[in-house]
């Protein structure tokens, strides 16, 4: 048995920037200002440019980014309590929790069988009188079909929100970035994401001045002037330290996406085993930043054990669909067969910038040697 290499080597990823991150730390330490200050403003400006939007607003984490978008729209009267928000069942639970936390009702729908992203036909079928918004998750780093979702949103007067927590830097066919493709977008900078802080952090992006103003208030106790509170906001401020680190990490967004794409290209070309179903290469290469490389296998447990014996780590994103989570027991009887089937078959292979060629080789060889 070979020694397992890491599924994701966060220390190695961050140590590429040891000098710049240390400088950032010292800059903040010496400034004496640690929450919502010059570093946050600078990062917000830089991230807005990177996403091609008017506004980027730093918040505590990705869940808060999504929740605050929805709460901002409630403040603006665009959403009211009990309105329905349509989202994919096969996502990280945060997508649904944001809706619940804002006092809205999640409506879970099936993914597309090829991309695993939300299925536009399923969205349309789920639209009812109380449907007011759709959240498109760019799952595993691949842009959802925003053109068809935009058409639906326009036709049925729905807000279109991106959960871009896995898709920093993904570009559509016209070169427009994730974060600029809907009415608003939520990003996470949790350490394992494609742009990761050294702790929790998030941001939301939008072209909408009114929404931006509401969210800036909401993230800081509903206040735009000290000790004057216009709404019952929350504390979801971004730390200066994380913002300073993120300014460093942001410089690698494009080159890291390129590195991830190169590894994905090798896996797609060199993994060949009738028991494994590989993801389809996207028609537009830049529309996928490969947060995860996810294969399907009906004998997933045997495959994962085989990979482990071969010294290849793997993870499952995600083993339980949202409607089967105890937290959403009210949805247990929903009929979402494809989402349920995916949860039983998906397996994520290691893929990150700096993954050694020998480890890529080992992953390919182990996948090809698997016999069901
Ligand atoms: C990580 C993630 C989130 C939540 O981000 P946090 O920063 O952990 O709150 C939301 N949606 C998706 C799809 C994610 O992958």
Automatic annotation (TrEMBL):
Q: Which BP terms in the Gene Ontology apply to this protein?
A: polysaccharide biosynthetic process
The record's annotation in Pfam families points to: DegT_DnrJ_EryC1 (PF01041)
Q: Does the keyword Endoplasmic reticulum apply?
A: no
Which residue windows are coiled coil?
Answer: none
As stated in the Swiss-Prot or TrEMBL entry, residues carrying the post-translational modification N6-(pyridoxal phosphate)lysine are: 193
Which CDD domains does this UniProt record tie to the protein?
A: AHBA_syn
GO MF term set: pyridoxal phosphate binding; transaminase activity
Name the UniProt key words of this record, in alphabetical order. Aminotransferase, Pyridoxal phosphate, Transferase
The residues annotated as the active site are 193
Q: Does the keyword GTP-binding apply?
A: no
Concerning InterPro entries, the annotation shows: DegT/StrS_aminotransferase (IPR000653), PyrdxlP-dep_Trfase (IPR015424), PyrdxlP-dep_Trfase_major (IPR015421), PyrdxlP-dep_Trfase_small (IPR015422)
* Highest taxon above the source species: Bacteria
By sequence similarity, the record places it as follows: Belongs to the DegT/DnrJ/EryC1 family.
Record-given protein name: DegT/DnrJ/EryC1/StrS family aminotransferase
Q: Which organism is it from?
A: Pseudomonas leptonychotis
């Amino acid at each position: 048995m070979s020694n397992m290499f890491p599924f994701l080597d966060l220390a190695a990823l961050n140590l590429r920037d040891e000098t710049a991150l240390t400088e950032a730390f010292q800059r903040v330490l010496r400034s004496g200002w640690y929450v919502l200050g010059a570093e946050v403003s600078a990062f917000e400006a830089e991230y807005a440019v990177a996403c091609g939007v008017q506004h980027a607003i730093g918040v505590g984490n990705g869940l808060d980014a999504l929740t605050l978008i929805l709460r901002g729209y409630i403040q603006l009267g665009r959403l009211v309590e009990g309105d329905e928000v349509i989202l994919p069942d096969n996502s990280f639970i945060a997508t649904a929790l944001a809706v619940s936390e804002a006092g809205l009702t999640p409506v879970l729908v099936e993914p597309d069988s090829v991309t695993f992203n939300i299925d536009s036909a399923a969205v349309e079928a789920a639209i009812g009188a109380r449907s007011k918004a759709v959240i498109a998750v760019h799952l595993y780093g691949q842009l959802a079909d925003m053109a068809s979702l935009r058409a639906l949103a326009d036709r049925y007067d729905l807000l279109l929100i991106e959960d871009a927590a896995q898709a920093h830097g993904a570009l559509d066919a016209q070169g427009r970035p994730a974060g600029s493709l809907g009415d608003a977008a939520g990003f996470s900078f949790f350490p394992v994401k494609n742009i990761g802080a050294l702790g929790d952090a998030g941001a939301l992006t939008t072209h909408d001045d009114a929404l931006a103003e509401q969210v800036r208030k909401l993230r800081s106790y509903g206040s735009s002037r000290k000790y004057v509170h216009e709404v019952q906001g929350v504390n979801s401020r971004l730390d200066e330290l994380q913002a300073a680190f993120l300014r460093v990490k942001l410089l690698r967004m494009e080159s890291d996406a390129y590195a991830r794409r190169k590894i994905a290209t090798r896996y797609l070309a060199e993994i060949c085993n009738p028991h494994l179903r590989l993801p389809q290469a996207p028609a537009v290469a830049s529309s996928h930043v490969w947060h995860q490389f996810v294969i399907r296998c009906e004998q997933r447990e045997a495959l994962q054990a085989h990979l482990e014996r071969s010294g290849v780590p793997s993870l499952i994103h995600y083993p339980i669909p949202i409607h089967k989570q105890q937290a959403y027991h009210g949805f247990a009887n929903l009929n979402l067969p494809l989402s349920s089937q995916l949860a039983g078959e998906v397996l994520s292979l290691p893929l990150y910038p700096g993954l050694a060629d020998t480890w890529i080789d080992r992953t390919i060889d182990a996948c090809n040697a698997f016999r069901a």
